[in-house]
Each structure stands twice: as structure tokens, then as C-alpha cells.
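Holo prediction — zinc ion.
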Amino acid sequence: MADQDPDDVIECEGHGRQPSTLVCRHLAESEGDDAAELGFHWSAADGDLVANCDACEAEVGADGFLPDDYVLDNFVLICRLCFMELAADYGVEPAEIEAAEAAAAAKANH
Ligand SMILES: [Zn+2]
Ligand SMILES: [Zn+2]
């Protein structure tokens, strides 16, 4: 997998310029009452925040990755703060995410 640019930024309507994160559109579109129904699987591997729902998790192949085509069709970029808010809907604390990011960054800078 090619290195992703850690400086990727996105212009968020609510938060301005922020680092981008990748989430499945099911989660991205679920804000509100139906949030917390879909399941929330997240990772900060390589320092890039990624999250997807239960349905997407079921598409993960034997190699542990989602097929590229699937990601292209089903994932969208949202800003890091939106990611945090989404995670909070699923009971994932920002501190938990920040710790995972710090751990990934420490590994990258090794
Ligand atoms: Zn999904
Ligand atoms: Zn945002």
C-alpha cells in the first residue's frame, strides 16, 4: 500500500480546514437518530483514521482489507473532528482515538 500523505486536509463546512479521515458512507450519512445502530469499527493504523459499519466489516477479505473497488464506491472523506463526533455517538472517546493516533505516529517515526 502506498504511503498516504498525513498532511491531507479537507475543508469541512462545520470545522474549517482539518485533517481528512476515511469513513464508509453508511456511517457518514447516519448522523442523528439512526447513528449507533450500524456498528462502528475504527482504526488508526498508519496514523490515518478509518471507520466503517458492520455491513462493510462483513466485506473485509481474507487478507484483512476491503477490496479497493469497494472502498472507492462506499467510502467518503470527512474531517477529523467530524470523525470524533461520529465516534462519540458509538461510545468511542476522543482520548482513545488520540492515543491510537499517537501510537501509530510513534511507530512511523521509529
Ligand atoms: Zn458501511
Ligand atoms: Zn467536520
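READOUT: The CA atoms of residues 46 and 108 lie 7 Å apart.
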